[in-house]
């Protein structure tokens, strides 16, 4: 399951990059931020759905780690990062891209991948 979570996050990030490209294209037209996601592409909805999948997989990993006493301390950190990612995504969508939210969203995605990769290495070691 750890390997699966490591695969899902980059897929979600790739989709997020496509959403960002769509937003950049709309922004270049001069439309106000309130209109940027008024008619989003299908990629946006897939990205959002993958985010739900990432959350469910991570919640399952936290549950399994706790239930089986696996001792992987980074799992709760991963869940916290995922929840912060979702919160920043919600802020961007519902509050018209407040300053810094896009940067926070991307940085968190990068940190998330790093921590997930570390967790996989830790799982291999044990």
Fold and architecture overview:
The chain has helices at 2-28, 42-67, 74-94, 101-125. Helix 1 (2-28) packs antiparallel against helix 2 (42-67), helix 1 (2-28) packs antiparallel against helix 4 and helix 3 (74-94) runs antiparallel to helix 4 (101-125). The protein is mainly alpha-helical and 126 residues long. The longest helix has 27 residues, at 2-28.
Distance between the termini: 15 Å
Portion of residues in beta strands equals: under 5%
Structural classification:
mainly alpha
- Number of strand segments: 0
SSE string, helices as H and strands as E: HHHH
Determine Rg (CA atoms, Å): 16 Å
Summarize the helices and strands and which ones pair or pack.
Elements (H helix, E strand, L loop, with lengths): L1 H27 L13 H26 L6 H21 L6 H25 L1
Helix pairs in contact: 1-2, 1-4, 2-3, 3-4
Entry summary:
With 126 residues, the protein is an all-alpha fold. Helices cover 79% and strands 0% of the residues.
Question: Can you tag this structure with a few keywords?
Answer:
126 residues; mainly alpha; 4 helices; 79% helix
């Amino acid at each position: 399951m750890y390997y699966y979570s490591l695969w899902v996050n980059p897929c979600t990030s790739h989709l997020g990059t496509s959403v960002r490209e769509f937003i950049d294209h709309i922004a270049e037209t001069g439309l106000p931020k309130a209109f940027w996601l008024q008619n989003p592409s299908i990629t946006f909805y897939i990205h959002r759905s993958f985010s739900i999948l990432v959350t469910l997989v991570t919640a399952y990993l936290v549950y399994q780690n706790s239930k089986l006493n696996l001792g992987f301390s980074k799992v709760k950190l991963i869940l916290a990062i995922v929840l912060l990612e979702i919160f920043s995504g919600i802020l961007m969508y519902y509050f018209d891209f407040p300053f810094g939210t896009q940067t926070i969203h991307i940085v968190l995605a990068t940190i998330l991948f790093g921590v997930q990769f570390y967790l996989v290495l830790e799982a291999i070691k044990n």
